[in-house]
Amino acid sequence: MKRKDSGDAETEDTEANLLKASDGKNAETASHGEDLNAKRQQILTGAGAIFAELRYEGASMSHIARRSSVSKGTLYNYFDSKAALFAAFVKQKACQELPHTFSSIRKDLPPGKLCLVCRPGYHYFHDLT
C-alpha cells in the first residue's frame, strides 16, 4: 500500500512491498541459479572431453553440444562462440590446477628449476590448442 503524504514514504512502502513479494521467490531463484551453474558445468565438461579428443581446430559446437547432451541453442545461450567456450574451459582448468601446482613449489627455487616444475602444466594447456 502506498502512502501519499510524502514522496519518501511512498518510495519506502513500494520498496517494502517489492521485498515482500520477492521473499517467496528467493528459494526458487537460488535453485534456478544452481541449475544454470550445473548446466554450464555440464557443457564445460563435455567441451573438455571434445577439446582433448579432437583438439580446438577439430572441435565444433555441434560435437560439444552432442557430448554435453544439450542442444546447440542451449550451448549458444551459455557461450557466444567456440572461442568463448574454450576460454571459459581454460580459465576453469587454470583456476582448479594452478593453485595446487604453485602451492607445492618451494619459494627458494632458482628460475631454471621453477620452469621445470611448471612445464607439465604449460604442456597440458598448450596441447589442447
Automatic annotation (TrEMBL):
DNA-binding region: 60-79
A GO term for molecular function: DNA-binding transcription factor activity
PROSITE patterns on file: HTH_TETR_2
Taxonomic path: Bacteria, Pseudomonadati, Pseudomonadota, Alphaproteobacteria, Acetobacterales
One family name in Pfam for this protein: TetR_N
Biased composition (Basic and acidic residues): 22-38
Keywords: DNA-binding, Transcription, Transcription regulation
Protein name (record): HTH tetR-type domain-containing protein
Domain HTH tetR-type: 37-97
InterPro entries, alphabetized: Homeodomain-like_sf, HTH-type_TetR-like_transc_reg, HTH_TetR
Ranges where the record places region Disordered: 1-38
Highest taxon, organism lineage: Bacteria
Gene3D superfamilies per UniProt: Tetracycline Repressor, domain 2
Natural source organism: Acetobacter oeni
SUPFAM superfamilies with a match to the protein in the record: Homeodomain-like
